[in-house]
Amino acid sequence: MQCRDGRTRVLPQTPQEEIAMKRNKLALSLAALFVASTSATVSAQDNNPPPAAPSDQQAKQLQTITVTGSALPRVDVETPSPVTVITAAQIERSGLKTVSDVVRAISADNSGSIPTAFTAGFAAGSSGVALRGLTVNSTLVLIDGRRSANYALADDGQRTFVDLNTIPVNAVERIDVLKDGASSLYGADAIAGVVNIILKPSYKGGEATAEIGTSQHGGGTTTRFEGLIGGGDLDKDGHNAYISVEYQKDDQIKLKDRGFPYNTTDLSSIGGNNLIQGQPSLNLGSTYGTVTPAMLTRPGDLTSGVPLPGAVAQILRPCGSDSTQVTNDPNNPGSYCAQNQTGQDTQIAPEQQRLGLYGRFTVKLGDDATAYLSASYFQNEVQSTAVPPQIQTSTPKNTNAITLPPTLADGSLNPNNPFAAQGQYALINYAFPGLQFGAIDDTNHNLRVAAGVKGHAWGWDYDSALVINHTWLDINNYGYLNYNQLISDITNGTYNFINPSANSGATMAALSPTLNKTSTTDMDSIDFRASRELWEMDGGPMGLGVGADFRHEAQHDPDLNPDLAAQGLGIAHTIGKRNVYGVYGEVVMPLLQSLELDLSGRYDHYSDFGSNVSPKAGFKWKPIDMLAIRGTYSQGFRAPSFAENGSSASEGFTTYTPPSDFQAAHGNNGYVQPYPLGFLTAANPNIKPEKSESYTFGIVIQPWQPISLSLDYYDIKKSGVITAADSSAVLDAYYAGLPLPPNTAVVADNPDPQNPAALPRPIVVEALYVNENRLETNGLDADLRGDFKFNDDWRWISELNATQIFEWNLYLQDGSEQRFVGTHGPYQLSSGAGTPRTRASWANTVMWKALTVTGTFYYTSGESFVVPDVSSGCFSTNTITGANFPADCHMSSITTFDLTGSYDFNEHVSVFGSIMNAFDRKPPLDPINYAANNYNPTYGYSGIVGRFFNLGVKVKM
C-alpha cells in the first residue's frame, strides 16, 4: 500500500496494529482529499512505481508521515487541523510554473496577496500569499518545515513576508497548506495558516524539461528550462546527492497590446472620467507641454504661479503623432495635446528572469541516523517601464504651480517661455520625454544553506538543523526628478523644453539621476526536535513531541530618497535586528479508538519586545468509518516587524479626492482635484505583538470509496492590530479645525495660489504605529473530490475547492466598524485589490493510457466599489457629474478556464502543453484599482494576459 509521500506502508501484523488500521481506515482512504489542491488534478500515486518488497523491519511497523501542523510523525495523515497537500505531479498537471503561481491560486488566498505585476508597490518585484485575507505578514511560509529570510522590502513599508519568487519549484516534492492557526508549534506569524514547501529528500536519475509559451494578444513570451540529476542509493550506497537547476524568462506584456478600456485612461465614452495626460486642469502634462501666461503670488518663488485673468493654455511645441490636439475642452480653456501615456508606456507584466540552483547531499551515518547538507541560490530580476515624469508634483515639494521665468539668471530672455518678450511668467504643464517615472530594475538574490541530522535513539525520533539564509536586493529606480536640479534648470534655462531632443545625456542624468540601494535580510537558526511514543491508551499509544529553537533575524533597508530630493517619492527605511528563543511541546492522546485529543503549546522570547505563550487544542472524532468530526482552538501572535518597532519610517501615496465642501471653497479648481496624498508612518518602540484567537470546526465524509468531502468552518479574531491612526479621523479633524488624534500630524500644502485665504489642502498625514484596532473574519472551506477508475486504461479525477468568507470586519478605536467582505477595501492595503467573498476552483483530469488532459475553472466573486476605509458610498464616480461609475458600483466576477495535457511516448520522452485562459475571458472593469489601469491585477491577471499557449518536452534518463 502507498502512503501519500510515496513510501510503502505494509499491512499490520499484530492485533494492536489491526485495531490501529481500523481506526485509521477513513483517514487513509481520505488522504486523497487532503492531497488535492485548487490546482490539483491527480493523486500522488499516479506516477509512482510499484512498491518495493518490504523489508523485515518494515513488516513490523506502520510507516509514519510528518504532517505540517504536528510535531509527531503519524500513520493517520488526517489531523484535527485542515491541511491541503499539493504534490509535484499535481503542480505539473496544473500548468502553473512557479511556487508563486501555485500558492496564490489557493482559494484561501485573499486580500493583501501580492502579485509580481504590482511593480509600483513598496515591495516591487516580489510575490506573497495572504491566507484568510489577513495580509502577507499573517501567513508563515516555511521550507522543509523551517523558516526563511523575508523579502528585503516591506509591503506598504510595514509588512514582512517571504518572496515566493525565490523558492525552487523543480525540487518540490509537495506543498502543505495548513489553513489553521499554528503559533503553538511554529511561533509568530502563523495566525492565518502555514505554507510549507517540502523539497525532495533524495533523487536518483536525471530529467530535463524545456518549454516555450506566448500570449495570443502579444507579449509575455516565456522560455523555461529545468534540469534534475542525482545519484546514489541511501540504503545500498549509504548516500544520495542531487542537483536541480531552473531558468525562466518572461518577456514584458505592454498595455498598448490590449484593447479598450485597459489601454487608456479616458473612459468618458462609457460614462467614466477622462484622465488622459495633457490636461492642465488635472496637472497631467503631455511631453509636448502647455504654457499659460501667469504671475507669481510669492515674488521670487517659481512654484507660486497663477494664470493671468482671462489667460488660456497654449501648446508649448507642436503635438506629435502619438497625441491629439484638443481645443474645445470646456474644462481646459485653450489647447493641449491629449496623450495616452499610460496606454503607450506602462506594462501589464514586467520583464522577469529567474535563475535557481538547488543541491542536496544526504549520507547515512548508521542504521538509525542520516545527515544532510542542502544549499540553494535564487536570483529573480524584474524590469518595468513607466510613464514620463510630470513637472507638476505635490510631494515632497509642491510644483503644481511651477512657472518659467521671463528672464534667465544671466538676464537674457528665456527661450523656453513664449511670453518672455511681454515680461510674463509661463505656468507650465509638462511631462519629460525620455524618462520613465518609477521604472525599476530590481534583482533579488537569495542564498540559503541548511544542514541537519535526523534519526532514532533511546526510543526517540530526533531532527536537528542549522539554517543560514541571507538575501540581498539590488534596487535601481528611474525617472524621478531632482527638485533642486529642476529649479536650477528652469532658472538657468539648462533644460530645453522647446526641443527636448537637444538636451544632453549629462543634463538628463543630472535632472533625473538613477536612485539605487542594496537592501538585505538575514535569518539564521538552529533547532532540535524530538518525539516518541509514551504509554498505551484505549485508542493507541500516546505521542509526545518537543522542540527548541533559536534564530537571529535582521533587516537593513536604507532610504532610497534620504534627503527628499526626488519628486514624487517619499521616504521608506527599515532597520532592525533581534534574537528569538522558543520551546514547544505537543501531546497526542488517542483517548478512544474513535477519539483523539491533540494539545500543544509554545513559549517565545524576543529580544526587542518580550515574551509570548501560544496554546492550542484540537480533537478528531470518528464515530463511524465514513465520518470524521474535527475542531481546534488556538491562540497566536504576530511579532512586530522591524518597520513597526525598529528604526523605521515609510511614506506611501494614495490618489485622494478632498470633500466636496472643501473643493467648493477653492472654486473646484485644479488645486482640489484628485491628487496623491502621502501617509507617513513611523516605527513605535513600544509596540506590542498582535494577538489572535482562532477556531476551526469541520467534518470529513466518505460515503463510498471514490468520493470524499470536507467542510471546515473557521473564525479568527485578532486584537491589538498594528496600524497607523485612522487617516479619515485625522483628515476630518483637520478640515473641521479640531485637535488631531494623538500621535498624528498633518503637513499642509502651500496655500492655493488662486484662493490663498482658504484652508490649504493636506499633503501628508503623519502617525506612529499603534496597537489600536481589532478584526474578525470567518468563513468556510469546502473540498469535494471524486476519483473514478473505470478500468486499467481510463481514470477520471474531479475536485472542487472553495472558500467562502462570511465576515471580514475591522473595529476601530472610536468604536466604529468597517465591513470589507465583498468590497474594494481595505483599499490602502497592498495593491488595493479588495476582499472577494468567494474564491473557488474545479479541476477535472481524464487519463487514458499515456494521455492525460486536465481542465480547471477558477472563480473569484465580484466586489462593490465601496471603500469603507477611505469614505462612505461608492468610491468610483464620474467626478464631473457625481454619478456612480459604473452605475451599479460593482466589479463583476472573474471566471477563467485552463486546459493542460501531456502524452508519454515512452518512459523517457513526453510532451506537454497548455492553453491558459482558454476561453480568453477579459478581466472585469476596475477603474479604482491603483495597481493597474482599469483592471484588478491580483484576481484578474490571467484575464488581462488573455489566452496563453505553452508547449514543452520532458526527457528522462
Question: What does this entry look like structurally?
Answer:
This protein has 957 residues and is mainly β. It has a single domain (15-255, 350-385, 441-480, 511-648, 683-724, 769-956), classed as Beta Barrel (Maltoporin, Chain A), CATH 2.40.170. The chain is built from 12 helices and 43 strands. The protein has a 22-stranded antiparallel barrel. It has a 5-stranded mixed sheet with strand order 1-4-5-2-3. Strands 10, 11, 12, 18 and 19 form a 5-stranded antiparallel sheet that branches. The radius of gyration is 30 Å and the shape is globular.
What can be said about this structure in brief?
It is a multi-pass membrane protein. The protein is mainly β.
Q: What would the keywords be for this entry?
A:
22-stranded antiparallel beta barrel, globular, Maltoporin, Chain A, mainly beta, 5-stranded mixed beta sheet, 43 strands, 957 residues
